[in-house]
Amino acid sequence: MKRENKYEVTSLDIQNQQEFIEAMKQYNLQEFAKTQKVKKYIVVTYGCQMNEHDSEKLAGMLQNMGYEETDDKKGADLVIFNTCCVRENAELKVYGNLGALKNIKKNNPDMIIAVCGCMMQQPQVVEAIKKKYRHVDLVFGTHNLHKFPELLVNVKHSENMLVDVWEQEGEIIEGIPSIRKYGLKSFVNIMYGCNNFCTYCIVPYTRGRERSREVSDIVTEVTDLVNNGSKEVTLLGQNVNSYGKTLEEKVTFGDLLRELNKIEGLERLRFMTSHPKDLSDDLIDAIAECDKVCEHAHFPFQAGSNKILKEMNRVYTKEDYLESVEKLKAKVPNISLTTDIIVGFPGETEEDFLDTLDVVNQVRFDAVFTFIYSIRQGTPAAEMKEQVDEKTKHERFNRLVSRINEICGEINQSYQDQVVEILVEGPSKTDPKKLMGRTRQNKLVNFVGDESLIGQIVKIRIIEPKSFSLNGEVIL
Ligand code: 5AD
Ligand code: SF4
Question: Of 325, 332, 251, nearest to 290 (Cα)?
Fold first, then answer.
């Protein structure tokens, strides 16, 4: 496989892709005339919200081609795995599920199997798929997702596995149709890629260099979503608070928040994910000033020890992080904070781990995503000598999680009898007789209420705080 950027990508490309979408639509119509069956697709997504959003784009293109969604792989004519490679577990799941498809495809030889996403940006993965998973029909990467219609047409005419992975990103492609899974809550990419090269992380190698979308394109997209019923928008990027650095226009993430805050009909604005090094005073001011920006910030600190933070190339210290948090809490008093933590980074001693616990105790996060360090081939940390043994990693992980759960439980208890404002999303997942929604702090609330409340902002009194959610009643 020749892994180079073969094409000069221009925004005209997307119009060409419309021709391929049309060709597939005609083909599917002819098939329907013969069989009376609509072609079905399923997109299985692994990993982060960025991937979820890419999957919405794939779904948008497929629906324009006349495909219908199914949740059953066995009955699907097209199965797509949109993969993640941030940790080894995610990769192993993909291989396991791909293997299981082999027998399903034996009973349905016309089934098309496609794999895309971050894993495919790694040459060794593509080689493994070529060798061991020959039942796969199409492999593509993160940089040529917009070419999917063309690739699908080519697969139809090809006997062999079609592999098209671009090593480098092209310019940002605007206008890809996407199916929004949640009408009320939508995701909007504001930037792509990452320049930070944290030494444990594979993302800069799979998602390419940082590049921001134009403010006007983002404003148009958000306005359009609001006009179509969205009440809450989450801005997505690997490091949203460095937004604007690649644009000619001098604009910061704070400026973007202020601009989006003007959109009438938009109720709530959130963002994910941010790097503590870019938490400027201007951004803190913007969060405090903009009434639509929710009082919730996700600032991954990863580790508490300055030695480990340096080895991770995080460019801030424990003290810097704690100081930023203090500033944020002072300007936005009821802000909820969430974070990501890695335990067992190479060289982590018990003392280093205690620094991580210390940050957890001082900040008192509302929720934490905890990860056991996973070696990622091709990253600097994979070459570091003092890898921590599995037993120690798990033992520290368990201690960390139990402390985090204690704190989260205590924070939830403090909500007893408080009145909160929630956006009602739909039926509760744990009790279908109830409805659920989230507070501006992103707390999950279950309550008894009429379905007509879905989509509305409602005041709720908390009557029973639980460890990971709150039960409440509507205030009339
Ligand atoms: N091992 C464990 N966790 C990782 N993350 C990123 N790379 C690794 C790795 N190699 C975690 C970080 C990041 C989150 C999305 O995934 O905490 O913030
Ligand atoms: Fe990975 Fe660090 Fe970039 Fe986040 S900021 S995507 S952890 S390299």
Answer: 332
User: What domains can be seen in the chain, in order of their start residue?
Assistant: 11-164 (3.40.50.12160), 185-349+356-367 (3.80.30.20), 419-474 (2.40.50.140)
Average of per-residue pLDDT across 285-289 = 96
Mean pLDDT of 224-242: 94
- Using an 8 Å Cβ cutoff, are 138 and 144 in contact? no
Query: What's the CA-to-centroid distance between 239 and ligand 1, angstroms?
Result: 14
| H or E element at residue 233 | strand 232-236
- Measured in Å, residue 201 CA sits from the centre of ligand 1 at 6
Looking at residue 4, its pLDDT comes to 38
| Distance (Å) from CA 133 to ligand 2 centroid | 30
User: In 228-349, where does DSSP find H-type helix?
Assistant: 253-260, 281-289, 306-311, 318-331
- What is the per-residue pLDDT across 435-452, written as a single tens digit (0 to 9) for each? 999 999 999 999 999 999
Q: Where does the pLDDT of residue 176 fall: very low under 50, low under 70, confident under 90, or very high at 90 and above?
A: low
CA–CA separation, 456 and 233 (whole Å): 15
Band the pLDDT of 7: cuts 50, 70, 90: very low
Mean pLDDT of 227-232: 93
Report which ligand 1 atom has the smallest distance to the Cα of 375.
10
Distance CA 401, CA 407 (A): 10
Q: Say which ligand is closest to the CA of 47.
A: 1
* Residue 341 Cα: closest atom of ligand 1: 17
Answer whether 393 contacts ligand 1 (Cβ < 6 A).
no
371 lines ligand 1 (CB under 6 A): yes
Residue nearest to atom 4 of ligand 2 (CA): 238
Average pLDDT in the 355-364 region?
98
